[in-house]
Specification:
homodimer, binds adenosine-5'-triphosphate, binds magnesium ion, globular, seven-stranded mixed β-sheet
C-alpha cells in the first residue's frame, strides 16, 4: 500500500524540489516502486527528470481539474522503478480555478486513490505557498517531509507551516503526521547554520533525519542535464547524502 | 512623484526579500524618501526590519481587503527616510479572498494612489507565486526589478515571468516595464553561475545591473537581528553591493 509523502514548506528555495527529485530517484534505485507527482506550476521536478513542462500534453492539472485518471498522465523515467506525474503550464491557473469546485481540497486525494497500491512510495513536490495546491497535497498525504534551509527566514516560517498542518488535521485529514525534517544546503562553517540547526533539533527532536544535505554544486548542476544527482554524479557528496536519506526514509516506513 | 517598483520573481528563494529590504534601506540612507510594502504573507521583509508580523495590528491586508488608508498602516524604521507597510498573518487568506472582489487586481494600486507623492521610491516585496498578490503588485507598479539567482531552476522560470509581465501590460497596466535585473547570491567560482550569468546577459543585455550581489553570510545573518545589512555590518561585501545597486537604481530613475 503506497505511502503518500508531501514534500512541503511555504518558504521559497529551501530545497523542496531537489529533495523530492533526488529522494524519489534514490528510493527508485533501491528497487522500490516510486511515483513523484509535481504539484508545482513551476514544473521544476518535471524538468529535473529531463521532461519539458511546456511540451507535456497532459499533466496533474488534468487529473485535479478535469478528473483524468492519474495512470494516463504518468511517465516513465530513466530510473526503472520510478515514474513521474508531470506538471505543466496549465497548473498556474489551478489555484484560482479550484476555488469554486466541489470538494476542492480532495481532488488530488481522489486522483491518487485508484493507483495508490501500485507504488510503495508516492512523493508530491509542492509550490512555495499554502494555497489550494499545497492544501490538496496535505489532504492526500499520509505524512509530510519538511526540507528546511539553515537560515533565519526559513526558521521563521516553520511555526506557520505547523499551524497549517494542525488545521488540515482538524478539518481535512486526521491522519496527517510529520514524516521527518531534513536540513538542506547545510554549510557547517557558518555559526548561523549551527544556531538554526540547534533550534530545529530542539523543536523537532527525533523527527530530524540524521542525514544532513550539504551545500554541493553537483546538486544544482544536475537539473541542467535533466538528471537526478545519482545519475549525474553518484560519487558527489550530494548523491551520497540523498542515498543516506533514502535509506532512513525507507527504514522508518518499514518499521511503522 | 513616487516611482513604484515591484521586486518580483515567482521562483522561490532567489533573494527578493533580501533585495527589497537592503535596496530600500540603502536608498533611504541616501536621504530619498522611501517606502517598502510587504505583500508576502510570510512577512519576511517586515521581520527584516525587526517588526514582528504576528504582533502587527493592521497591515497591507487591511488596505487591499478593507480599504484602510495606507497612511494608517505605515510604520517608521531605524532609517530616517524610510518607512514600511508591514504584512501580517491575515495576508495568507488574501489570495482566495480577493477572487470574488470588484477590481480585484487594482486594490493595491488604489491603496497607493493617495500617498504616492509623499515618497520618491516605493518598493513592493512579492511572494514566490504569480497569484493575485503579485498581480496586484504588477498592476500598481511603474516597473519591475527582477532578482535572479544564478542557478538552473531560477533561469527556467524567467520566460514564465516575462509572459506574465506581457499579460499584465495588455490588460491591467500598459506602463509596466522592466526596471532592471539583478544577479543575486553570485558565486563566481562555479561554472554553473558563469553559464547562467552569460545566459541572463544575452537575454536582458543593458537591463542587467552592473552591481552583482555576491553570496555573503552577513546578508543572511542580518535579518536575525532585525536589521538591514547597512545597519548590521556596513563594511561587508553584501552591504557594499547593495549600496552600489542603490546608486544605480537612483541614477537610472533620475535619468529617465
Ligand atoms: N544541497 C544543495 N546544494 C547546492 N544547491 C542546492 C542544494 N539544494 C538545492 N540547491 C539549489 O538551490 C536552488 C533552490 O532549490 P530548490 O529549487 O530545490 O528549492 P525549492 O524549495 O523547491 O524552491 P521553490 O520554493 O521555488 O519551489 C536550486 O537552484 C537548487 O538547484
Ligand atoms: N547574497 C546573499 N548571500 C547569502 N545569503 C543570501 C543572499 N541573499 C539572500 N540570502 C539568504 O538566502 C535566503 C533566501 O533569500 P530571500 O528570502 O531574500 O529570497 P526570496 O526570494 O525573498 O524568498 P521567497 O521566495 O521565500 O520570498 C534567505 O535565508 C536569505 O537570508
Ligand atoms: Mg521547488
Ligand atoms: Mg521573500
Amino acid at each position: 500500500m503506497g505511502k503518500v509523502i508531501a514534500v512541503a514548506n511555504q518558504k521559497g528555495g529551501v530545497g523542496k524540489t531537489t529533495t523530492a527529485v533526488n529522494l524519489a530517484a534514490s528510493i527508485g534505485a533501491m528497487e522500490k516502486k516510486t511515483l513523484l507527482i509535481d504539484m508545482d506550476p513551476q514544473g521544476n521536478a518535471t524538468s529535473g527528470f529531463g521532461v519539458n513542462p511546456y511540451s507535456v500534453e497532459s499533466s496533474i492539472y488534468d487529473c485535479i481539474i478535469n478528473g483524468k485518471p492519474l495512470e494516463e498522465v504518468v511517465l516513465k523515467t530513466a530510473i526503472n522503478y520510478m515514474n513521474i506525474a508531470p506538471s505543466n503550464i496549465d497548473l498556474t491557473g489551478a489555484e484560482i480555478e479550484l476555488v469554486p469546485l466541489m470538494a476542492r481540497e480532495n481532488r488530488l486525494k481522489n486522483a491518487i486513490a485508484p493507483i495508490k497500491d501500485q507504488y510503495e512510495f508516492i512523493f508530491v513536490d509542492c509550490p512555495p505557498s499554502l494555497g489550494l495546491l499545497t492544501l490538496n497535497t496535505l489532504t492526500a498525504a499520509d505524512s509530510i517531509l519538511i526540507p528546511i534551509q539553515c537560515e533565519y527566514y526559513a526558521l521563521e516560517g516553520v511555526s506557520k507551516l505547523l499551524n497549517t498542518i494542525e488545521l488540515v488535521k482538524k478539518s481535512l485529514n486526521q491522519m496527517l503526521c510529520i514524516e521527518g525534517v531534513v536540513l538542506t544546503m547545510y554549510d557547517g562553517r557558518t555559526t548561523l547554520a549551527q544556531q538554526v540547526r540547534d533550534e530545529i533539533y530542539k523543536h523537532f527532536q527525533d523527527k530530524v533525519y540524521k542525514s544532513i544535505i550539504p551545500r554541493n554544486v553537483r546538486l544544482s548542476e544536475a537539473p541542467s542535464y535533466g538528471k537526478p544527482v545519482i545519475l549525474y554524479d553518484i560519487r558527489s557528496t550530494g548523491a551520497e547524502a540523498y542515498l543516506n536519506l533514502a535509506r532512513e526514509v525507507v527504514e522508518n516506513a518499514e518499521r511503522s
